[in-house]
Amino acid sequence: MSLPLTRRQQTKLRALGQSLKPSLHIGREGYTPATQSALEELLAHHELVKARVLPNAALPAREVAGLMAEAAGAALVGVVGHTFVLYRANPKLKERIALE
Length: 100
Known about the structure:
Elements: H1 7-18, E1 24-26, H2 33-45, E2 48-53, H3 61-72, E3 75-80, E4 83-87
Parallel strand pairs: 1-2
Antiparallel strand pairs: 2-4, 3-4
């Protein structure tokens, strides 16, 4: 189940995601257990993750983003072209994103 966000929270996260570089790249294999475990590792260290689906991938970015967000229990912040941003709160991090 993905995390529900208000419009204001989504706007703030989208703005923060603008400055991020994609830290996860999905290639021609598309969505695999390996890409999901890489996402889980990234979400353990960062609350906001930007990913890029390469043009030769099997699935379009919007579909991959939805699958990955659902499996990780994360919120899909936005999809633009081949790039998407996911958010999942992590209370163990020292530097957290304040959504209020």
